[in-house]
Amino acid sequence: DGGITQSPKYLFRKEGQNVTLSCEQNLNHDAMYWYRQDPGQGLRLIYYSQIVNDFQKGDIAEGYSVSREKKESFPLTVTSAQKNPTAFYLCASSRNSDTGELFFGEGSRLTVL
Amino acid sequence: AQTVTQSQPEMSVQEAETVTLSCTYDTSENNYYLFWYKQPPSRQMILVIRQEAYKQQNATENRFSVNFQKAAKSFSLKISDSQLGDTAMYFCAFMKPGWTSYDKVIFGPGTSLSVIP
């Protein structure tokens, strides 16, 4: 079955630690995205990537980093510089076409202790 | 900058009844797309319905339909014959097709819908 897999589903981190969230897709989509979801704020774009080895900052990139070494993979690192990292993180992908439809993973919930 | 507003943080509806979720947006663009996404308690978000701004006809997908008022910049979602499985967070979203292949989707804050047996 084609889809997007995020791992881990739940993650706990101590303050000062970096943590990496995994996102893998087998939909053969060119574009991938990372969103942060907080109650009452909808989804906010952290980073996006149109093609391999290229990515761009979204609206709230500070304290986060990404890589896109393979088409299928777009991991997100939440660094210790992120002041309020406790949140629900969603990875998505889309074809580079005009449909605009996003396909989402099940999300990763990060809690900083 | 484009913005998307959903003025109803929470709504409830009786099973089998009809409910309408509101969405307004702000843009100076003439060509764009609008979406409703559904995020059930299991958390995987899926597309419910999509509307292209240049089409006057309102989009319909089974029990889901939209009322697209371009001049008023309004894009409401109507769910008919509500079912328990419709309980979810619903997000309205806007997208302007870019000159490159960059598609940036802007989401509203969401409406939490509860279907009551």
* Helical content class of chain B: under 10%
- Quaternary organization: heterodimer
Spatial shape of chain A: globular
Largest interface summary:
A-B, 26 and 25 residues
Explain what you see:
The complex is a heterodimer of chains A (113) and B (117). The mean pLDDT of chain A is 91. Chain A starts with a strand and ends with a strand. Chain A has no helices and 11 strands. With 113 residues, chain A is mainly beta. Chain A has strands at 4-7, 10-13, 19-25, 31-38, 42-49, 56-57, 64-66, 76-78, 87-94, 103-104, 108-112. Chain B has 117 residues and is mainly beta. Helix content of chain B is 0%, strand content 54%. Chain B contains no helices and 12 strands. In chain B, strands 2, 5, 6, 10, 11 and 12 form a 6-stranded mixed sheet that branches. In chain B, strands 3-9-8-7 form a 4-stranded antiparallel sheet, with no helix packed on it. A two-stranded antiparallel sheet of chain B has the order 1-4. Chains A and B meet through strand 5 and strand 9 of A and strand 5, strand 6, strand 10 and strand 11 of B.
Annotate the secondary structure layout:
The complex is a heterodimer of chains A (113) and B (117).
Chain A: E1 4-7, E2 10-13, E3 19-25, E4 31-38, E5 42-49, E6 56-57, E7 64-66, E8 76-78, E9 87-94, E10 103-104, E11 108-112
Parallel strand pairs in A: 2-11
Antiparallel strand pairs in A: 1-3, 3-8, 4-5, 4-9, 5-6, 7-8, 9-10, 9-11
Chain B: E1 3-5, E2 10-14, E3 19-21, E4 24-26, E5 33-39, E6 46-52, E7 60-61, E8 64-69, E9 74-79, E10 88-97, E11 103-107, E12 111-116
Parallel strand pairs in B: 2-12
Antiparallel strand pairs in B: 1-4, 3-9, 5-6, 5-10, 7-8, 8-9, 10-11, 10-12
Task: Name the features.
A: 113 residues; mainly beta; 4-stranded antiparallel sheet; 48% strand; globular; B: 117 residues; 6-stranded mixed sheet; 0% helix; 54% strand
Task: Describe what is shown at a glance.
By secondary structure, chain A is mainly beta. Helix content of chain A is 0%, strand content 48%.
